[in-house]
Amino acid sequence: MKKDETEAFYARLREQLLENTSWPSNYLYKFIVPTDEKRIHQINDIFDNIGAVIESKKSKKGTYTSISITVFLQSPDEVIAKYKEVSNVEGVISL
Known about the structure:
Blueprint: H1 3-20, E1 25-34, H2 37-48, E2 53-58, E3 64-73, H3 76-86, E4 93-94
Antiparallel strand pairs: 1-3, 1-4, 2-3
């Protein structure tokens, strides 16, 4: 995505999170990443120090790994900050 599209996406997400969730709250992230220990560790490290519950599962052929992360956050801004950090991991798809 281009920078303008990315910022518009995060602005819409922030609005939706404010409207539909009482903060602070648990938030569930879902990512798909090519099965590569380095990339999986990068994602785990982003959430490691904030008490997140992280579950991962390899695809049938083992090519991809799905990662589900539940974490208690204070605001939509914290949710978006984590999405931005994860977006730096090569090949990650946010669901």
